[in-house]
Structure formats: structure tokens, C-alpha cells
UniProtKB/TrEMBL annotation:
Residues annotated as transmembrane: 38-54, 74-92, 98-118, 139-158, 164-185, 212-234, 240-262, 274-294, 300-324, 336-357, 363-385
Name the UniProt record assigns to this protein: MFS transporter
Pfam families according to UniProt: MFS_1
Subcellular compartments: Membrane
Species of origin: Pseudorhizobium endolithicum
Cross-referenced CDD domains: MFS_MFSD3
Topology versus the membrane: Multi-pass membrane protein
Superkingdom in the source lineage: Bacteria
Keywords, comma-separated and alphabetical: Membrane, Transmembrane, Transmembrane helix, Transport
Recorded family membership: Belongs to the major facilitator superfamily.
Database matches in PANTHER family: MAJOR FACILITATOR SUPERFAMILY DOMAIN-CONTAINING PROTEIN 3 (PTHR12778:SF10), SOLUTE CARRIER FAMILY 33 ACETYL-COA TRANSPORTER -RELATED (PTHR12778)
Matches recorded under InterPro entries: AmpG_permease/AT-1 (IPR004752), MFS (IPR011701), MFS_trans_sf (IPR036259)
Amino acid sequence: MLLTGITGLYVAQSIIGGITWTGLPAVMREAGVPLDRIGLVSLIALPWVLKFLWSPMVERYRLPTRGRNRSGTIVLIGGLISIFGLILAGAFEPTRWMPLFAILTVVAFAASTVDIACDGFAVQSLATSQHGWANAAQVGGAYLGSALGGGLFLYLIGTSDWQIATWSMAAALFLLGLPFLLVAARAPKEGTREHVPSLLHALRRPRLRQGLFAAAIFVVALKVSLGMIGPFLVDAGVDLATIGILNGTGSLIIGSAAALIGGACVRAWGTKPVLILALILQASLLALLAASRITGAFPVSVIMTVAVASSSGVMAFGFVALYAQFMRLSDPRQAGVDFTLFQCADAAVSIAGGVIAGQIAEAFGYGIFFTAAAALALGAVPLIASVAKRETPGLGAANDTHAPPESVRSTFS
């Protein structure tokens, strides 16, 4: 029941992300919004970048010095704000991008706060034997949520309209949040805690700081092209309903399969080879997209296959290893703070990359943009190789989540 509740929240958060970063760019492009403004969608992720600032306050409220765990309260309030935000967003047309950006930024603030509580609750509450399942729930939930928010959402728009699609996603958030609230209600009524969560405690740990640097390199190299793939498919003549089916299928089938393969590879080889292989695969796929635009020789079916392999397959494969390290390097006494720092590094480079991506694509075209993105992914390989350290295969990173920080044997292995 605990894993079910946590998985439900991860799916719900990813629905919001799928709507914002996959669905909305494609809808805006079909409505005639220029690429440079579509690139600004990445700014909606600002709360995910800045949430480290209020993560200690959230953790102190969630885990008071004496009293009950308040994770359920945080999730309830944040969930209601997210649901009503999507209902309000449905009242605006996609061309009204400024009010939509404002509403979705508030939703992102609520969802990011819920995420702090959810991650902390997961690391704190799950037994060691369940840590591997928690990683699977996080990655699998993210891709299921992406299938709903980026796939089903677009399909509903293509077959009905924006309002019905947005309100349907609000209803999904409501249903997905209920299991966690039932689990949180069963948390111990009272408890005493000596440790006071703080950013200073996290940033004093050298391994965490090195992990942040490595995470930033990996994320910017792997994700910089993500926001332009939807508009690229639209400009290639693919309709929204087809893109919705493609995103949904890619997330449900390719993304889930790639996550399982990535998890198996991490256990067999350690995380360093998985991270490097993901970068090489992404560089190859982006080079194919660049070639398709420059030469015009690729059929649309090939372009769609390469696009979904990049945005779903390689992304899932690489991020299994990345998030395993996030869990491993988080102190369970303040997991909501530590895990948040890693996620903020992810969001920060995603925002910067998304804004720059829109400007480059608008100014120079998709061919140059995807060529540059491929070169960036390939150029990140030696950097990740130099920062990463060797790990003994078979020791899943997630299985060490509750080990003391000093016992972690590698920073980003």
C-alpha cells in the first residue's frame, strides 16, 4: 500500500510535467506561437529549481521536533492547489500563453512542494529491501505520468478540445493522490526527532556537492533537446493526435522497457557505464534528427521513431542510474532536503537549456540545433567519465539509501 501511494504521487507529478513540457509546446506551436516563446515554457520549471530554498521549512514542518508526521497535510494542500490550477487553466485558450504560464507556475510551486514531502516520506518510511522498488516506482511513475500528461492529454485535445483534456487531467490528479493520503493517515501519531533539517548540513558534505556537479553535466547533455522535439514533429507535418499517441506509446512501452533495461544494466555494470552509454546513444539519435532536417531524406515514420527513442527510451535508460544516485546520496534524516537539491540541479539546467534551445532553433533552424545538441551530449562523455568513479557491479545504488553519508563508496559511480 505504501509503494502504491508513493507511485500514485509520482505519476501525478509527472502528469503535470507532461502537460507543461511535452503537451503545451506542441499545442502552442499548432496555435501559431513562435518557437522563441515556446522556449519560455521552460521558465515554468522555476519552482522546481528554487524549491531547495523552502525544502528545509517543509521538512521541519513535516518532521517536527515532537509530534506526528505531517506528510499527508502537505500532499493534501498541494494536491488541491494543483487540481484547481488545472481546472482554471482549462478556461483559457492555448494562445493565451501569459495567463497559462502564470497558472502553471503556481501549479509547479504546489507540485514541487508535494514532491519534497513525498521523497522524504519515501526514503524515511520504506524498508531497505524496498528501495529498489522505490526507484522503479519513481522512474516508472514518471513515464506513466508522461504518457498521460504528454500523450493522452494531446490525444484528447486532438479528438475533443483543450478544456476537456485539461479537466480530465485534473480528475486524474485527484484519483492518483488518494492512496497516499490513506497511507499517510496511518503514520505514527507521535515521534521525537533530534536532527534539524538544513541546507547547510547537506552542502557541507563533499560527496553531495560533487554529485550535484555531475548531475548538472549529465542532465543538460541529455535533456536540452526535449522541449523542441514536439514542435519539430509538428513542423514535420505530424498532427497532435498522432504525437499524443506517439508520446503515450513511447512512455508506456519504450520508456518503461528502457527503465527496466537500465536498472538491470546498473546492477550488472554499475552506474558509470550506464550514464556514458546513455550520452552516446542520445548523441547518435540527435545526429539522426539533424540529418533528417538537413537532407530531408528521412520519411516521417523514421523521424517519429528516432524522436520517441530519444525522448522516452534513452531518457529512461539514463535517468534510472541518475536517480539511483540521488537516493543513495540523500541523508534519510533530511531526505526531502538532500533529494531536493539534486532535483533542483536537474531543473536549473533544464530551464537554461530549454530557453537557449528555443532561441537557437528559432534563429538557426532545427538542423543546426540538433547538431549542436548531439555534439553537447558527446562532449559530456569525458566529463562524466572523469567525475564518475568505479562501482562494484551488482550493488544497486538505491539499496544503500539509509547508509550513513560517509559510507557511500563513490560519488557518482
